[in-house]
Write a structure and sequence with these properties.
The chain has 17 helices and eight strands. The chain is an alpha+beta fold. This is UPF0597 protein LKD48_15940.
Length: 436
C-alpha cells in the first residue's frame, strides 16, 4: 500500500519529467548549450567549436531544427541558440525566434566557421561548446541531462567545474548534491505502486501537468495528420487501414512524431527527456478515451499509468541508448489503455510483459522521420499485449528475455538497454557518421 510519502514522490516525479519542449530534445539541448556559451562570452562568436557524444551526434544529425526555416544538423542547432536563443527558457530556448532572426541564423551559418568533433570521453548525453571572438573565448558543457550545465569557463578562468577541487567546484558539487536530494527517488516506482497511485491519487496535485500534456501533444498529432510532415506515417496508416480506434491510436501518435521530427513549430510535453516518448505515452490514450467516451478524470488517471511506467522503465535504461525509447513508451500506452478500459494490476502487468516481448528488438538510430513508424509499431505492440491478455494468452517466464514477474522482466529490459546494446550503439554511430 502506498504511503503519503509515496504519493508525494510520484507527483514530484511527474512534475520533474512532464515539462514542455520545443523541438527534438537533443538539438534543443545543443541550442541551449550554445546560447549559454554566447551569454558567457558576452558577444557574438566569430568561431564555434562543438564537441558531442556519439548519441548526441546520432540524434541531431537528421532532424530538422524548428524555427530555422527547415535546416537540420548540429551547426544549425548551435547557430539557432547563439543567434536567437534564450537559455533561461531551457528546452524552449528557441521557441520565440522571429522571421528576421531566422534570416540571421542562416547568414551566421554562412559567415562563421563551425567545427564538429566527436567527444571521446564523457557521458552518452554530453555536449561541449567553445565559442571565440577576437581574444575572448568561452566554454560551456552540458552532461547527463539535457539542461544540466556542469562546466563554464571564460578566457580560461573556470567559473563552474564539478570535477576540479577549486572553491567554485565545491559549491557546484554541494548544489548538485542538494538538487539530487530534492530530485524524487525513482527507485520507489513499481508497477503495482503505479496502478494504485493511478486509482487513488489526488488529481489536483498533477492535473495541470496532465492537461497540458493532453493539449500540447494531441494538438501536434492533429497537425501531423492534417498536414504534410516527414514520411506521413499517420496518414498512410489511416488511408490504408481505416479509422478504427486501434489504427487511429497508432496513426495519431506517429503523425505527432512526424511533425515534430520535421520541424513543426509547436511545443510538446516530454517524458523521460523525449518529446517522441511524451507523444507516445499520451496520444493513443487520448484517442481511446475519446472513442469510449471516458471522462476527463478517467483519462488523466490512465495517463498516470502510461507516464509513470515509461519513466520506470527508462530510469533503468538511461536517457540515450541503442534501445528505442518508443518501445517503452508504446508498451506503457498499452498499459494505460488496459487501465482506461477497466483493467487492474493483472491486466496492466501482463500487457506490459506481452508487449515488451514483442518489440524489445527495435534499435534507436537517431531522431528522424522513421521514428514515427517505430512509434506506430510500439503502440500496436502495446495494444496487442492487452488484447492477448483479454483473450487468455500471454508470454511466460523463461520465454526469451521474459522472466516470471513484471519487475523482473523490466530489469531484463533495462540490462539490455543500458549495458547489452552498447556495442550496437557504437556500430550505429559508426554507420551514421561514415566511420569504418
Amino acid at each position: 500500500m502506498l504511503t503519503r510519502e509515496d504519493h508525494k514522490t510520484y507527483a514530484q516525479i511527474l512534475r520533474e519529467e512532464l515539462t514542455p519542449a520545443f523541438g527534438c530534445t537533443e538539438p534543443i539541448a545543443l541550442a541551449y548549450c550554445a546560447a549559454k556559451a554566447r551569454e558567457v562570452l558576452g558577444q557574438m562568436p566569430t568561431e564555434v567549436i562543438i564537441e558531442a557524444s556519439g548519441n548526441i551526434i546520432k540524434n541531431v544529425k537528421s532532424v530538422i531544427v524548428p524555427n530555422t526555416g527547415g535546416m537540420k544538423g548540429i551547426p544549425a542547432a548551435a547557430a539557432a541558440g547563439i543567434v536567437a536563443g534564450d537559455s533561461k527558457a531551457c528546452l524552449e530556448v528557441i521557441a520565440k525566434v522571429t522571421p528576421e532572426e531566422q534570416k540571421e541564423i542562416a547568414e551566421y551559418l554562412n559567415n562563421v566557421p563551425f567545427s564538429v568533433k566527436a567527444m571521446e570521453d564523457g557521458d552518452k548525453l554530453d555536449i561541449r561548446v567553445t565559442v571565440k571572438a577576437k581574444e575572448n573565448s568561452a566554454v560551456v558543457r552540458v552532461s547527463k541531462h539535457h539542461t544540466d550545465i556542469v562546466y563554464i569557463a571564460r578566457n580560461g578562468e573556470v567559473m563552474l567545474n564539478e570535477q576540479d577541487d577549486c572553491e567554485c567546484a565545491q559549491k557546484l558539487a554541494e548544489s548538485q548534491a542538494a538538487a539530487a536530494e530534492q530530485r524524487a527517488d525513482r527507485s520507489r516506482l513499481s508497477i503495482e505502486g503505479i496502478v494504485e497511485y493511478a486509482k487513488t491519487a489526488d488529481l489536483s496535485t498533477v492535473s495541470d501537468l496532465l492537461n497540458r500534456q493532453v493539449e500540447y501533444n494531441y494538438n501536434i498529432a492533429q497537425v501531423g495528420v492534417k498536414e504534410d510532415w516527414g514520411a506521413n506515417v499517420g496518414s498512410v496508416l489511416l488511408d490504408t487501414y481505416g479509422e478504427d480506434v486501434r489504427t487511429k491510436a497508432r496513426a495519431y501518435a506517429a503523425a505527432g512524431s512526424d511533425a515534430r521530427m520535421s520541424g513543426c513549430e509547436l511545443p510538446v510535453v516530454i517524458n523521460s527527456g523525449s518529446g517522441n516518448q511524451g507523444i507516445t505515452v499520451s496520444v493513443p490514450v487520448i484517442i481511446y478515451a475519446k472513442e469510449y467516451h471516458k471522462s476527463d478524470e478517467e483519462l488523466l488517471r490512465a495517463l498516470l499509468v502510461s507516464n509513470l511506467i515509461a519513466i520506470h522503465i527508462k530510469t533503468g535504461i538511461g536517457p540515450l541508448s541503442a534501445f528505442c525509447g518508443a518501445v517503452s513508451a508504446g508498451c506503457a500506452a498499452g498499459c494505460a489503455i488496459a487501465f482506461l478500459l477497466g483493467g487492474g494490476i493483472d491486466e496492466v502487468a501482463h500487457t506490459l510483459v506481452n508487449s515488451i516481448a514483442i518489440t524489445s528488438g527495435i534499435i534507436c538510430d537517431g531522431a528522424k522521420p522513421s521514428c514515427a513508424a517505430k512509434i506506430a509499431s510500439s503502440v500496436d505492440a502495446g495494444i496487442l499485449g492487452y488484447e492477448m491478455y483479454r483473450h487468455g494468452q500471454q508470454f511466460y517466464g523463461e520465454d526469451g528475455i521474459v522472466s516470471k514477474g513484471v519487475e523482473n522482466t523490466i530489469r531484463n529490459i533495462c540490462r539490455i538497454g543500458a549495458e547489452g546494446m552498447n556495442g550496437t550503439d557504437e556500430e550505429i554511430i559508426k554507420i551514421m557518421t561514415h566511420c569504418d
